[in-house]
Amino acid sequence: MSIEIHNLSLEQLEAQKASYEKRIAELRQQERDAALRTVRELVAKHKFTAKEISQPPAGAAPASPADAVDAKYRNPETGETWSGRGRAPAWLEGANKDQFLLVASS
For residue 102, how far is the Cα from the chain centroid? Predict the structure, then answer.
């Protein structure tokens, strides 16, 4: 199906757009409904609990925060590190931070 859009008026184009958007919404809903039916069938078949479904898969690595940064400072006595963001840890209070600075590896 090919429509020559260059010959259509603004009103005709807007009507076509509305028609396409309606059809897209219908198809999306049909896909969602089918997927939900499949999920419900699998849950019933395997007798999953809500808790099992909401938990990450066994052995999955925990999600890391999106803003996690590498350590910038290390306490040589405990191995504790600090990224330089947020409140400084107690072991850095009143100390020269440069002596705890990690050497960047290139």
Answer: 30
Token pair, residue 46, equals: 């395997």
Q: Could you tell me if 70 and 81 are in contact, meaning their C-beta atoms sit under 8 angstroms apart?
A: no
19-56 per-residue burial string, b: 16 or more CB within 10 A, e: under 16? eeeeeeeeeeeeeeeeeeeeeeeeeeeeeeeeeeeeee
59 falls within a domain: no
Do 72 and 31 have their domain in common?
A: no
For the cut 60, the answer to whether the pLDDT of residue 106 exceeds it is no
Largest CA distance in the chain: 77
pTM comes to 0.47
Query: Which tokens is 7 given?
Result: 């010959």
- H helical segments located in the chain: 10-46, 50-54
